[in-house]
Amino acid sequence: MPGRPSAHLTGATIGLLRSKSGCKTCKIRRVKCGEEKPHCVRCTSTGRTCEYERIKSSKFSSTSSVLPVLTNPLSLSPNTVWRERRAFAYYFQHAASSVGGGLDVDFWRTIVPQVCRSEPAVWDAIISVSALFESPEPIVDPGLTQNHRDALGWYSRSVSAVRQQIQRGSIDTFVGLISCVLFICIEALQGGVDEAIQLFCQGVHLILALRAQIADGLVTAAKAALLEDTIVPIFIRLGLIGFTFSRAQISALLRDSEHKPIRLFVSLRSAREGIVRLAAEIQFFQHTCEEHLLRPDVSHVPPELMDLQTVLSDRLRDWHTAFVNLMESMHATEAVTPQDIGTGALFSAVYEALFIMLEVCVSSTEAITDTFLPNFQRIVEQSRITLDASMRSDGTQPPFTFDINPGIPLWFTCLRCRDPTIRREALALMLRSPRVQGFHSCMSAVTFGERIMLLEEMNGEVMSAAPEPMHFSTTESLIGYQYSPYSSDSPSRASPGSSDPETFTPTAQAIPEEARIGHFDVFQPEKGLPPEMTEEVMAKWNLSRDRPFLGFWRNERDPTNGTWRMVREYIPMDLKY
C-alpha cells in the first residue's frame, strides 16, 4: 500500500510541468535536457551541436511557443527589470482585485505577493498573468506585442523553475499549489482549456496531499486555515464552472470539508461559501436525476430523490433567509458599497438559478420551466446590476475571473428559458461578462447558447406550420431547411454577437414540448459513433467525419396512445439554420 504523500512535490505530481521540448541532440541521445537557451548546458559542455525544434504553437504549455522570446533572452533584453516591475505594479493595482473577485482580494493582493518575495517562479507567474490581463486579446503571432512576448517568456521561466525544484525535491507543496493556481489562469487566458483542466486536476491532487499532511500534524495551523478557507473554495468554484468534467474532483474536495447549518452570515464572503456549496450539491442532485430519467421506461424519480429534493430546498431557503438578513443589516448600517450591491445581486441571480434547477430537475418535461419565467427575469435583472458594478473605468469587464460570476446563471437561462425576450437579454448580457470564465471562453458559450435557442425556435416554427399533428424529427426538419433569423434577405436579424443583440425577437409564443431539447453533448464521428448514431443517419447528412456533432435528448409523443418517451438525436454543430 502506498504511504501518505510527502511534504514536497514529486516529479509525478505536476505532470504538465514535465518537459517534452528539449533540444534535438538530447532527444536523440535519450538524455535529460536542461533546456537552457539558446544552447543547453549538456550539449555545450560536451562540444555537441544544440538545436531546438521550431514547433508552431500558441499554447503556454509548450516551450516552443516562446521561440520569439528565446532569440533575445529576457535577462539580456533592454529594460527587462523595468518591465517586470511595471507588470507587478499593474498586477497589484488592477489584476489582483479582478482574478478572484473582490471577496478574495487579500489572497491575491497580499498572500500571493508575499510568496513571490522568496519564490522567483511565483514572481514570474504573477507578472505573466499581469501582462495577459493588460493585453488579453488572443493573437496569432505571440511576437506581435511586447506584452505577449514578455508573458510567454516569464511563464516559460516560471515553469522551468518549478520543474527544477521538483526534480531537486526542494519545492514546498504550498508553493506548488499557488503556482498551479496561477498557471491555470495563464493557460485559460491563452485558450489552453485542456492544459488548464489538467492543472486543475493536479491542483486537487495537491490539496488532498496537504490534507493528509495536516492530519499528520505536518502543516501549521495558519497554512491549514489558508488551505480550507481560501484555496479549497477557489478550486470548488472553478469546478462548478467546469462541472461536466470536474465532478470527481469536487466530490473529493467536499468530502473532507465541514458542512455547517446555515443560520447567520457575518459577511458576503460567508454567504458566498454557503451558496457555492449548495450549488455543488444541487448540481450533483440534478445529475443524478438526469441519469435516472434518461433510463428507458422511466418517467419519475424515486421517492428517495424526492426526499433529497425537500432537504436541499429547505437548505436553500435557509440560505436565502440568512442572506436577505445580511443585506438588510448592511444597508441599515450604511456599510454597503457599490461593489457589495453588485455582489449581492450576483448571489441573488445564482439563488434564482438554483431554485429553478432544484424544482425542475425531478421532471422529465422541458415545459415545466415556463412556470418560472419571473425567476428567469430576476436572473437577468440581477445579472445586469452585477455587470454594471464590476465594469471598469473604460467600460469593459475584467478579461478573466476565477470567481462565480453572472455568466453561470445567464448560461442556465440561455439554455432553459424559452421566453424569446428574456433569452436574448441573457445572451446580450453574457457578451458583457468577462471574456474568460474559469476554463471557458464566454464567446463560445454565447455561440452555443444562441444555436440552441435558434434550433428550438426553428423546431417550434416547423411544428406550428404543420396543418395537423405530425411525427416530428429535428434531423429530418433540418435537412434543406433555412431558418428565418439566418435568412439572407433579413440582414437586420442579427446574432447576439452584433452591435444590437436584440434586433430580432420572434413572436412570443410557447415552444411545443417536442421542439425543446436538452442533455447536450458534442462528439466527432471520426473518433467513433455513439450507440444511438447509425451509419444510415450519418449518410443522410453526407458530411465529412471530422466535423463535430451535437447530441441531445427531447420528448416525443406517441400519437396513437398519447404517451411520451425520450428520443436521442444528432445534428452537425456548424449547420446553418
Give a concise summary.
With 577 residues, the chain is mainly α.
Summary tags:
577 residues, mainly alpha, 2 domains, 3-stranded mixed beta sheet, 3-stranded antiparallel beta sheet, 20 helices
Textual characterization of the structure:
Residues 485-501 have a biased composition (Low complexity). It comes from Penicillium canariense. GO terms for molecular function: DNA binding; DNA-binding transcription factor activity, RNA polymerase II-specific; zinc ion binding. Mean pLDDT is 82; it is low at 1-19, 55-73 and 480-504. With 577 residues, the protein is mainly α. The chain folds into two domains: 74-255, no CATH class; 268-572, no CATH class. It has 20 helices and six strands. The protein is globular and about 75 Å long. A hairpin with a 6-residue loop joins strand 5 (549-557) and strand 6. Helix 8 (173-189) packs antiparallel against helix 9. The protein starts with 23 loop residues before the first helix and ends in a 5-residue tail after the last strand. Strands 1-2-3 form a three-stranded mixed β-sheet. Strands 4-5-6 form a three-stranded antiparallel β-sheet.
